[in-house]
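pasting for ref
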Amino acid sequence: MKVLVTGGAGYIGSITSTALEQAGHTPIVLDSLLKGRREFVRDRIFYEGDIADRALLRRIVAEHPDLDCTIHMAARIVVPESVERPYEYYRDNVAKSLELFDELRSLGKPRLVFSSSASVYALVDDFEVDETSPVAPASPYARTKRVMEMALEDISAGSDLRAIILRYFNPIGSDPDLTSGSYDREPTHVIGQLVLTARGLRDEFVITGTDHPTRDGTGIRDYIHVWDLARAHVCAVERFDDALAAIDAPSTIFNVGTGAGATVRELLAAFERVYGASVPTREAPPRPGDAVGAYANVNKAGDILGWRSALTLEDGIASALEWGKKREEVLGFE
């Protein structure tokens, strides 16, 4: 089948496109290249433009009338930046997405898989969350994701739009062939910072927040290998109609994680084991918008989508380290 992938030149979007291809599908990439990388598009069908450009969406559908589903990944995603620049986050993540949803619906392309985030969850005592756990997004970025979840729930209830919402936990690593990976020169995510420190491109790794109510005071996350995350999208696309029929609802939410949590100190220890050496560190207060964290209960995805993670935390760390060596070749910088 053909699948429109918005943000398909980005980190997760490009790797998901690879997973779609390996499963026998054809990704159609739509990306503004505001953040995405042209190198990640390679020889795929590609449209450079904005998700809110209705004329462009009409052109894409006219040229690919057999389009089966859309995976909507295009978004601004940096939590501290969202605190500083909330307007841009609400404009790009919310307002423009609404234009995309409405145009796809009017074009008769109602199947949508939406990239949401585990950052919408409220803090719970044991840190394990399922899809019915309370939500309390703590940053403008997280709130844009929750707003879009609610919008999709309402739009699908009142129209023929149908939505599968995937709440991502924390993706790490690269695709198996090391053709795509993290591309920011100064990554804000923890694994990217660890890799840069290990390679001598940063002086130290900063542990932000050490007095959280976790087992060692540092934030807790569910680190999922990005290849497992990409496979979850393939399952969502392939089982789209059956999944919604099983739930008997026009939209639904799935957690996409490993089912296990690791604190930042535990992640650091695992990283040092895989890397084979210690990493210089220092402690600092939490960043604006940082959440204590959570890890996923993934029973629903296993039962309905037939998906579970297959790769370990150590696999993801090793993949991230290998991509750190490769990305200069792919992108032209370390």
